[in-house]
């Protein structure tokens, strides 16, 4: 990354900034302090900015009311026509928006009050038009007592009222008729029994009940068609005004960006200075953009100081396999410039951990279908409208998500073959997979486990039949009676690798930046965690502490070397990290946290097994009908279990990377802004020249 400082005459500043927009390589950094003016614009510049922002806001709100996606590019009108283009679209669009809003309010009122108002109109019998009588409608809940209301009315208006009710849905509506002079007394009687007068919303309030019912009937009959017609009008307005409106909106954003650049620059009476960053491979583009101005622009380039400058932007550069996983990195902060970019580690281990947890061919195929569906939408340049979440996923993001999902699916299918799981134990029921104790013993016997047949040793024929199938299982994690410890230690090995690796990165970064404190901190905790691991293996997880004096065991020697390195490192940094021994215990727990891979995966496998076993047992017990019932029940249960546990299957591998692996590297302690260069939105050919201004 290179840092650049640019000085330009004020009268040429708009042309230079426009050229920088065309180049699209300069990440600007605000200039603060100094003898020149910085910060908010003043005078004519401020007024010009306000005018452009006002017109931009008008264009943005009109586009939002149109509700249309970006149309095909259109020529940009002349600058003098921009306000006419925006206002020519804004006025009919605003009027249509008000009409649609009023219609929607009417539809909502009909849905909420229509049945009740029609019932009240029938109860009124034409009395709602009387000049002498008043009608007070009310709503009764199922728990309300009509007798209490009658008692309150008799007490307030003896023989001077009429009461009628009708059931509407689960509730009842009622009507009290009385003299107009007694209206307040009727309301008071309703209030005493915790009831209130039913008031209609908006323009329906105050209408006679018969008129309100007739109007709501008209809305019910014609509302949907009217709504469709208004939608067609909006689409027509979008087709008519959308292309030019988007073109003007983009040009206005470019003009506002020019004002923003001036605001973050240092300004004198006749000059303007700006500073920023750009990658070294984009320096030629900057030189080409500024070279056209000759001596009117002066600039200086130099390398950044990554040790002290806190504002250097970061641009992640990865190969074609790793790049899609940057969408996963979007859940985390960017790394500090000049430090470790973990994207490739996440690209390697995140789908692997997910695959170990799922480890099911059937589930993997479902993820593969979902990933192909995402890629299909991306190839058709379609986004994914998640309106119920208030989000829209663009095609480029769908392409990355589809790729990541397919990699996760591939690992799930591969591990499904190793664990012998196809929708749980469905593969075993179909004799696609089977557990061969002899094969398991030959592969894993060195760990101390011993797999035995589930059948009696004397019944050789039955045992052979029980362990027959097409593909033998080589990682039988469902065989918890003897294989759980192997699967657990296998998961912990990833913790040993990543936690030590994380502290190794801390050491490397400390040496790179000549930071003795972080270097010795890394050395201390690398040695301490390594010593704890050696101690765990040497003492068989604390079962034989007598090994501490067994110096013929190389693990014991390595343990003491690790603890010695920890003590030396702690002494060197004790002033900065006095509680480092507590942190050592925490890091030991970080290694154990990788047992989540085993635990979450085993729970997933057991739930899938239960779903398949239940469906299979129905098929075996009931016959043909049981087969159909078993398929339906099993499929529904699998879908429910997968939907219920999927978030955890994704979050757990992410957490292991974000916390256990990245905390030791210092990744979560520091960050840098994303490289966000100044770019033009409107086509360069349509740019409004500002030369000579």
- Alpha carbon gap, first and last residue: 33 Å
> Spans with pLDDT under 50 lasting ≥5 residues?
455-465, 685-693
Strand content: 5-15%
Query: What summary fits the major beta sheet?
Result: 5 strands, antiparallel
Could you estimate the helical fraction of the residues in percent? 55-70%
CA gyration radius, whole angstroms: 37 Å
Instruction: Tell me the number of strands.
Output: 12
Summary tags:
693 residues; alpha+beta; 5-stranded antiparallel sheet; 3-stranded antiparallel sheet; 12 strands
Ordered list of secondary-structure elements with their pairings:
Blueprint (H helix, E strand, L loop, with lengths): L1 E8 L3 H11 L3 E3 L13 H24 L15 H43 L8 E8 L5 H11 L4 E8 L2 E9 L3 H10 L16 H56 L1 E2 L3 E8 L4 H9 L5 E7 L22 H4 L13 H16 L2 H19 L4 E3 L4 E3 L1 H25 L6 H4 L3 E2 L2 H8 L15 H7 L4 E2 L7 H33 L3 H23 L15 H20 L6 H14 L1 H28 L1 H42 L28
Helix pairs in contact: 1-6, 1-7, 2-3, 2-6, 3-6, 4-5, 9-11, 9-19, 9-20, 10-11, 15-16, 15-18, 15-19, 15-20, 16-17, 16-18, 18-20, 19-20
Short description:
The protein is an alpha+beta fold. The chain has helices at 13-23, 43-66, 82-124, 146-156, 183-192, 209-264, 283-291, 326-329, 343-358, 361-379, 395-419, 426-429, 437-444, 460-466, 480-512, 516-538, 554-573, 580-593, 595-622, 624-665; strands at 2-9, 27-29, 133-140, 161-168, 171-179, 266-267, 271-278, 297-303, 384-386, 391-393, 433-434, 471-472. α16 crosses α18 (580-593).
């Amino acid at each position: 990354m290179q840092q650049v400082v640019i000085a330009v005459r004020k009268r040429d500043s708009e042309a230079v900034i426009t050229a920088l927009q065309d180049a699209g390589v300069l990440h600007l950094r605000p200039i603060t302090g100094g003898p020149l003016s910085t910060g908010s614009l003043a005078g004519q510049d401020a007024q010009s900015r306000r005018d452009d922002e006002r017109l931009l806001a008008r264009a943005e709100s009109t586009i939002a009311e149109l509700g249309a996606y970006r149309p095909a590019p259109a020529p940009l009108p002349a600058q003098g026509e921009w306000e006419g283009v925006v206002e020519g679209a804004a006025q009919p669009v605003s009027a249509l928006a008000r009409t649609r809003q009023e219609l929607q309010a009417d539809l909502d009122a009909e849905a909420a009050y229509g049945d009740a108002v029609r019932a009240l109109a029938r109860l009124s019998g034409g009395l709602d038009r009387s000049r002498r009588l008043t009608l007070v409608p009310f709503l009764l809940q199922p728990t309300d007592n009509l007798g209490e209301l009658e008692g309150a009315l008799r007490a307030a208006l003896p023989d001077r009222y009429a009461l009628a009710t009708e059931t509407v849905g689960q509730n009842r509506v009622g009507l009290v008729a009385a003299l107009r002079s007694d209206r307040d007394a009727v309301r008071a009687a309703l209030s005493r029994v915790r009831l209130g007068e039913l008031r209609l919303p908006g323009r329906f309030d105050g209408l006679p009940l018969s008129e309100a019912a007739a109007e709501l009937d008209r809305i019910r009959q014609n509302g949907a068609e009217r709504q469709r017609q208004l939608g067609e009008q909006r689409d027509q307005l979008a087709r008519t005004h959308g292309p030019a409106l988007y073109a003007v909106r983009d040009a206005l954003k470019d003009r506002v960006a020019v004002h923003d650049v001036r605001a973050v620059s240092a300004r004198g009476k006749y000059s303007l200075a700006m500073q920023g960053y750009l990658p070294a491979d984009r320096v030629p583009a900057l030189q080409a953009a500024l070279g056209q101005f000759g001596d009117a622009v002066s600039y200086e380039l130099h390398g950044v100081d990554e040790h002290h400058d806190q504002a250097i932007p970061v641009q992640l550069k990865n190969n074609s396999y790793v790049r899609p996983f940057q969408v996963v990195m979007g859940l985390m902060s960017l790394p500090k410039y000049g430090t470790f970019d973990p994207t490739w580690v996440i690209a390697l281990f995140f789908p692997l951990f997910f695959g170990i947890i799922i480890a099911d061919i059937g589930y993997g195929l479902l993820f593969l279908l979902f990933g192909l569906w995402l890629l299909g939408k991306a190839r058709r340049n379609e986004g994914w409208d998640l309106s119920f979440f208030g989000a829209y996923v663009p095609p480029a993001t769908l392409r990355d998500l589809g790729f990541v999902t397919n990699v996760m699916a591939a690992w799930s299918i591969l591990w499904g073959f190793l664990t012998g799981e196809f929708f749980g134990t469905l593969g075993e029921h179909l004799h696609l997979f089977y557990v061969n104790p002899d094969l398991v013993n030959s592969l894993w016997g060195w760990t101390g486990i011993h797999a035995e047949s589930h059948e009696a040793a004397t019944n050789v024929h039955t045992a052979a039949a029980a362990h027959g199938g097409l593909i033998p299982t080589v990682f039988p994690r469902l065989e918890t009676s003897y294989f759980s410890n192997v699967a657990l230690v296998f998961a912990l090995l990833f913790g040993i690798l990543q936690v030590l690796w994380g502290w190794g990165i801390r050491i490397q970064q400390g040496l790179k930046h000549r930071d003795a404190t972080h270097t010795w901190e890394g050395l201390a905790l690398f040695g301490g965690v390594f010593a704890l691991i050696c101690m765990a293996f040497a003492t068989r997880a604390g079962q034989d502490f007598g090994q501490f004096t067994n110096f013929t065991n190389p693990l014991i020697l390595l343990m003491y070397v690790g603890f010695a390195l920890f003590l030396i490192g702690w002494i060197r940094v004790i002033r900065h990290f006095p509680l480092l021994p507590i942190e050592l215990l925490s890091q030991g727990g970080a290694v154990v946290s990788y047992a989540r891979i085993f635990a979450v995966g085993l729970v997933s496998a057991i739930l899938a097994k239960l779903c398949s076993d239940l469906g299979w047992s129905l098929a075996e017990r009931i016959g043909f009908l049981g087969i159909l019932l078993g398929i339906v029940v099993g499929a529904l249960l699998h879908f429910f279990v997968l939907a219920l546990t999927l978030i955890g299957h994704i979050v757990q591998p992410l957490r292991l990377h974000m916390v256990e692996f990245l905390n030791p590297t210092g990744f979560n302690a520091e960050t840098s802004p994303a490289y966000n260069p100044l770019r033009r939105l409107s086509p360069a050919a349509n740019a409004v020249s500002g030369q000579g201004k």
